[in-house]
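Friendly challenge for the regulars: who can give me the structure tokens for this chain first? No prize, just bragging rights.
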Amino acid sequence: MNSEHSLIRPVVGLTITTATFLLIPLIAMQFTNEVNWTVSDFILAGFLLFGTGFSYILVTRILTAGTDRSTLYKIATGFALFSGLFLIWSNLAVGIIGSENQPFNMIYFGVIALGIIGAFFARFLTKGMIWVMFSMAVAQTVTAAIALFTGLHQLPESSVAEILGVNGLFIVLFVVSGLMYRMDSMESTSNQLV
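First reply, four minutes later:
Bragging rights claimed.
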């Protein structure tokens, strides 16, 4: 019962925030033809935004209940979720390799699946999340290497520099998140020694 009441306020805030973000393209559509979202675009965007925010609430409030979650853990979790959302959003909007219709881009959803499955196996504990984030960085690196070795850099939309740059950005995001989890782990270990 207590956890239900502790979820109401954050979920209401998340709902308002999601609706506010969805107003941006809706308003833009009234002034320009450059923004042309369909109903399904709004539904998918709402699902991604709300789902990411709700995942953060669940992980930091419910799934890790009974453990001492530091501010650094919460920041690392938020950063990890943002990185995953950014990868999905970019891939759906314009595609990481070539255009959004390039079949190779489906592999990037495997990186996200690795993160989700890994987080559950790690039970969202700090030491496990370190490995999950570094594994996602390795998976992103392997995906970029496969793209280059299969000649996808020859597509008009994707040069070698673009493939390395975009994938490098996501690799850095996942590594930074892993390092934040590692710092949290070291901090909690030193606090236990005191």
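The CA atoms of residues 63 and 124 lie 8 Å apart. The chain has two domains: 1-63, 67-194. Your move, everyone else.
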